[in-house]
Specification:
The structure is a homooctamer of 247-residue chains. Chain A folds into 2 domains: 41-106; 114-246, Rossmann fold (3-Layer(aba) Sandwich), CATH 3.40.50.1970. Helices cover 40% and strands 17% of the residues of chain A. Chain A has 11 helices and 9 strands. In chain A, a hairpin with a 4-residue loop joins strand 3 (96-98) and strand 4. The A-B interface holds A 36-37, 39-43, 162-163, 166, 169-170, 186-192, 194-195, 212, 216-217, 221-228, 233-234, 236-237, 240-241, 244-245, 247 and B 36-37, 39-43, 162-163, 166, 169-170, 186-192, 194-195, 212, 216-217, 221-228, 233-234, 236-237, 240-241, 244-245, 247.
């Protein structure tokens, strides 16, 4: 029984008033019309579902994929191992796997790509995380420009690309080691920069802590940071921003 | 001598070719036309200048304010002490001071406020940082909705406001202590959330470290984090996003 | 010789006074009647023994199980590997193993379950720790209600369950990542909340440190925290509280 | 307009059905009868209100006290400075101040004290935090037994008190330096122990971190931990537990 | 040429004075009579040599053992893997291995054991480290009393042993988890306590950090701490102290 | 009623047996003759009492001093502020104060000094902590040799003193900054070294953490560490060791 | 089209002035003659290229080696696994591998070695990192003196070598555990010391953090630090310094 | 009696051989000709002495200055407070004070400045530390070029100066906040870079930890790091390197 029915019954005297009041208070929240709690679903509407594969049992993961697959919607699994992919692929041969980004995908319909997001990396080792960001953005319908290996230790590479980068609505800057890239880009751009520290490095890098702190302390304006190695988070947020720009 | 003049001289044979080449390489970069390096200035165009007051000597700070003031542009000083304000006010009586946010301002012309940014806080102690964010956004021409004291320890307060919050183009969520607010908001919104940890707390809060980590580890999608107490950074980035939406 | 005998001898002049005094001082403490030191044993009376399996050699572990088994009492082993279970099962076929919680049990008699404890988790990955808590509570005779996957990133799921949760005498709230669940529950309940941070997460989670700090810094009232992944500790303490309520 | 009125109007055809539905969805949550969100208020019913004074401006704090005072309910302010007390006392001469615990109170009616909570400290320097816990518990109607300065460096003092301590329904154990007290007590008791680390110490104590870690890592069963110096939190939670036992 | 010879040559005019001076300055330090730099060798005299095996290649380790073995002196290898032992044993069948402490030994002559050192542990998991301490002390001629599994979570076990423990000249107290044992022992003894934190634990134990901090912050007098898991260091230092007492 | 009396009554049938048994179990522990718990008091016997002044209220501190003073025993207060000294001195003019070590003393009888302890520092800034160690050792009857400012950055200073240092029964090595002194001394001595990290330093010293870690990780044998700045602890423990050597 | 050509066209009126200006601004930076950005390449001129192998796929790594190899230049790969070496060696049999330092090299022409760099280690376990430093320096044409196993726990070994060490233009000091070596050397030398902390150690070493902090806090003058285990960085910088001395 | 005299006596039979041998071994090290231990003094020869003022009592500091002053040598005091300067200046009016760098100096003769060191800062707040470096280098006879406020958030400022910076023999790069400057400079230079993190920043800067980690993790080659705020250390080491280049 939803609210409409309930009110109808009240109107028609088919239900006692105190009974109606009590029922109303016991309904699950979403039944009360809290569609507003689900607004963010709209972002995904027509795009598909995302599954975080790491730590899930293969059996469980395959079942999730099958369930979505039967509904004919796009599915993207992040941080999938090759073993997980192979189990999925055995049953759903249309599944594709990208070893670099560890993304497994079943694309029923490829969304149109609009706007522009620039995804940049400091080094080649950061590309795995960057691809998670880029492919997430593309999955949700953003156009992505990749600008890889433009780290600050050889700043001229970055300088020669900055004009292109600035054409994007939002910039995702991915870097490990000292993590200086996002700050340098933000200093040369007026577009919002989503900074992604990676765990690439050794010694006093402390598994990405060094890059994380660098990015949080950047003197440049227009930069915000996501968790270490969180390419998905950066891809998602940059899509939110990109969509604001193109709508 | 700028590039145009130089090329003219080359054209007119008034300068030796190798000499021109050498001169060209020695010009400061900006003279080479690297306006692209200054794109972010455009954000501020027509809005004014921002000065980080903390740690600056009063004498030095007053001089900066006077220099901008003579050019008749808006000036906003962040993290200003009352003493700094008084020194500025003695010479520039039009300067205003907000003790809560520690912002000192001289507004020559109030910019039109467009779009919408929601600035939320978990508790009343976070309002100082939130005001730095809100007033920064307003300084650069964003319209701001303040939603204060809606922390997750009394979630019903937040729930009753969430529909309004979701009308904004970008949400700034400010919280100290456990710092859970931005994650909970992001879970109920499809707009990008800029999370600002504050140093409010004691004990195992470790001066904001706890809130910072909470925000970085949020399971919700669409959230990125700035430095502890960095209201200015959040206000600036949310304006960049807001502008993308309204332009 | 216990105290009673000793005093009897004194009374009957069968022992020299100074000799009695000396003997008295040398008796092991427990012989002096320090049953009070063992009060907490009473909690377990009629329920059985718990063994922490991790790090114990298989040989040693099997011997412990056999020793208790021969006394016909219930035994619960926590953090048992499959190998450990198999070695136990080979000799004691009545042993059962739950892969999720890594608990191996031999239940001679199932205790009556009284009162009510709610065990909640933020995500599905936290269920392993939650089950350790839930099954510990059940082992010691508590009735347990499981409320899993109600994390704050989708707060409506939690809201629709909160009335049920509040019926429990004590709430165990298990969460990894940002660890905000216990604080949000405590804000909506007047029952004591035992918070369990888990090591689920990556990057700036630092193996559960982030969740731990979040829980310690919660603004909500009525929350206390156990060690990261310490499901057993939470199950035990919630049983102590539950028993106070039902006795 | 509350729900009852609204339903009445529906029943009496005084309101359009779709209008009623819309109104219903827009009502603040609490108006929807979410008294369940406020269950924890019940704990305080008849006891009064608590205010965290630290960081609040004197002006603001005095206003809060006056507002509660006019309603004739008990008020307790924690972490109040002497200056804050004096400002309150100037207007409300019935306000009392305890310098040790930094609590300022206006007690309109002293609640009956039921059950029993034991509040123990390792050293004399921990008494400030312990008193915050004890007086909080008393404010909410718990009977409190104080057992101070029984730290583990002189274990015989604790041993001679343990039988008394075990008579309580819940034990609050407060300790700085190495913080071993709660674990030792839990090893000798079957009652739940709320452990409170304090920031008392120097050097490798790191402002209470050492005590905090000790308590979280205790091998003893039946112990959970609150934030460093959080006497109020321990007092509140022990009252929740005590009330379960006496009701 | 040693100093004596040199001076003799000077005396006998067999060497030029400036030449003698130059030679003198170039002699390796030890040749200058810095036997004092080697005083600590005396501790080992007649006892043998100790080798830290961890991280050494098998080939290299075997060679070291052979070299000492040929000189007919006792050898003790700490932190030896089973593989390392087997390689040694293949060539030197008299080598013995203790899996618990990971010590491999070749004892040519068993030293007389004098004085008394008590080696205590909190739990059974700490015995590996305790045995490294105990066997090191024995290797260098100390008599050792083992008092294992007397952790503070069941304090009566410790209390019943404390009189025996106090008979030792020096106490080695080994504990993981919360690490409270050494402080409690020091509070009941007037003998110096060498505290050894172990890495036994999980979660907020942070690989022994918790135990280490507990021990450093102990309120008890007469306690000093060695590195996490450093049984050898504790065994060595306690022997130094024991020898001062018996000489 | 002590044990002797009680047993006498039993013997004389003046008390019921079950009554005697019950009384026995209720006696405070110390009354049961647990003098063994107080063995460490023996160290102090004839020497006096030590008071940790920091954080104590002046009023409270003066009272403690007066109470001991009336019993005509030596008193040493550590970490006393000048204000605390002055308050003590006003009533007990025989009190002496050493600003460097912040020790306030009332010496009724100067104990004979036996054995030898060497107290060494790396720099001159470490002398405050070193003096706390040295004067503590002297207070308890140890002879002390001071060897200050022999840090490893100018190793020749240390080398020229090492022969003297090695004459001591125990060495206290105090160092801030990088904290390398104790390890270097231990490498040149066969006497036990008590290492005391100090909080002297800046930047990556992190208030003594750097020195602390250095000392815990020393490769040299025969070294154990006390808390940062804990001169008293080192002085006490070195006295325990020194006494073993001279008795 | 480079600058020279462009200017020539301007001179010859073959290009429109505004067109020339526009072209100029769009040229990649390096085309603008920013050879100065590449000065550091000069260091390598005539020496060859260095590749960081760790984390690179074998396939990718082999391709890099082949590409350089075809140009007949020297190649050095650092942190290469044996598997990586074998894959390279299969195609380029002239490749050599050093298991200790994990360096794989193809040397077309051995550079003349000039100047002098001393590479010292505290222990034998630090040699792997030291060899990375030494062989890097040699690769770039520096003469290297190796002084291994001269740690401060046996200072006489270092003292007997210090005169030789001081003959170098630059000293690389490599140490794990407590990491005191570089500071002690700097105290006895007037040559710049590059300090390399290693991750050798256990417990409170925290993977090299302890050594790192020690070196940063050294009281000695003339010492600077590179990342934990960064032998390459030390070898490179010491070569820069050595070259300044010999040029 | 020095070595020469001693040997002369031996030669002349004025001293017994065994007596000579014994005397020889007891001489302070430096008397044995360990001038080599003092080589680093040579750096200072003709330049003067440096005193670290922070933490020294005014009385003590003045005495040190007077003692050097009477010998007519240059003196430089680092980290001097204004009060310390004033006390020095009262007795030695020739003393000069620089508030920015907190250096107090008495220059008897200004040394010739040779070679070139570039001292760069990221922001204006880093200038205090940079000046300590620059003035230290000048004190020891290096020529210094100051390049301030060229942080990476506005990279064009740095780019326009890089050619000049590269003319130096050694570069000191000083930066707080994210600390990216040294890495960016090293990427554009082939000269050794001494990186100095400063404690300028807030929040997740953790008093310079962020900058320190950034610099240690730099991907650029030719960079080594000193302690946070250690301008003196950088000035000294850069002088050592500069001198190697100019000698």
């Amino acid at each position: 029984m939803d609210i409409h029915e309930l009110l109808l019954k009240v109107k028609n005297n088919e239900i006692d008033l105190s009974e109606a009041e009590k029922t109303l208070k016991k309904l699950p929240y979403e039944d009360l019309g809290f569609a507003k709690l689900d607004h963010h679903r709209m972002l995904r509407s027509g795009f598909g579902e995302v599954v975080y594969c790491s730590g899930k049992s293969t059996e469980h993961l395959v079942k999730i994929f099958q369930s979505f697959n039967e509904k004919n919607i796009n599915i993207m699994g992040t941080r999938a191992s090759k073993e997980q992919y192979e189990a999925i692929n055995a049953l759903m041969p249309e599944a594709e796997y990208d070893e670099m980004s560890r993304i497994v995908k079943i694309m029923r319909n490829v969304p149109e790509q609009t706007g522009l997001i620039a995804v940049c990396t400091g080094g080649t080792s950061d590309i795995a995380v960057a691809e998670e960001a880029a492919q997430t953005a593309e999955f949700f319908g953003s156009r992505v420009m990749r600008v890889y290996d433009v780290g600050v230790a050889g700043i001229h590479r970055l300088l020669s690309k900055i004009e292109d980068i600035n054409k994007a609505n939002c910039i995702v800057a991915v870097a490990g080691m000292e993590g200086a890239l996002p700050g340098v880009i933000a200093g040369m751009s007026h577009k919002p920069v989503i900074a992604v520290p990676t765990s690439i490095g050794y010694g006093a890098n402390f598994n990405g802590l060094s890059s994380l702190l660098t990015m949080l302390n950047s003197c440049a304006e227009g930069i915000a940071v996501v968790n270490i190695d969180n390419g998905f988070g950066a891809g998602y947020m940059s899509t939110q921003i990109n969509r604001l720009a193109v709508q």
